[in-house]
C-alpha cells in the first residue's frame, strides 16, 4: 500500500482551492490563517494521503510537493520463496 505526504509552500499558495477539489481523499483544506499575500492557504487536514499527486498536478503555482512511501502492512512479513 502506498502512503503519501504533501508539503505546501504556504507563502506561494493563493488559496484557489483547486487542490482541495482535486483530492479524492479529502485530505486538504484551507487554513484559518493567512499568508503574507493575504490568502488563506491550503494545508493537510487528514493523515490519509495516498500520494496520487492530483493536487500537485492541478496547482497553478507549483506550491505542492508530494512524497510517496510504501506503508508496511500489519501481520504480513517479508515474502520468502522456498525451493521444493
Ligand atoms: S497526493 Fe492525492 S491524496 Fe494526497 S493530498 Fe494530494 S490529491 Fe490528496
Ligand atoms: S492549488 Fe496551489 S495555489 Fe491553489 S490552493 Fe492549492 S496549493 Fe494553493
Q: What is the share of helical residues?
A: 10-25%
Number of helices: 2
CATH architecture: 2-Layer Sandwich
On the 0 to 100 scale, the average pLDDT is: 90
Per DSSP E runs of 2 or more residues, the count of β-strands stands at: 4
User: Helix and strand string, N-terminal first?
Assistant: EHEEHE
Regions with pLDDT < 50 over 5+ consecutive residues? Answer: none
Strand order of the largest sheet: 1-4
Ends: how far apart?
Answer: 30 Å
Radius of gyration based on Cα positions: 17 Å
- Give the percentage of residues in beta strands: 25-35%
- Helix/sheet category: mainly beta
Task: Name the overall outline.
Answer: elongated
**What CATH first level would be assigned?**
Alpha Beta
Please, how many domains? 1
The main sheet comes to: 2 strands, antiparallel
* CATH topology value: Alpha-Beta Plaits
* Associated small molecules: iron/sulfur cluster
In short:
This protein is mainly β and 84 residues long. Helices cover 12% and strands 31% of the residues.
What does this structure look like?
- The chain is built from two helices and four strands; from the N terminus they run βαββαβ.
- The chain has one domain (2-70): Alpha-Beta Plaits, CATH 3.30.70.20.
- The protein has helices at 18-22, 54-58, and strands at residues 2-8, 28-34, 40-44, 64-70.
- The strands form two sheets. A two-stranded antiparallel ribbon has the order 1-4.
- The protein is elongated, with a radius of gyration of 17 Å.
- With 84 residues, it is mainly β.
- A hairpin with a 5-residue loop joins β2 (28-34) and β3 (40-44).
- The protein binds iron/sulfur cluster (2 copies).
- The site of one iron/sulfur cluster has 15 residues, from α1 and β3.
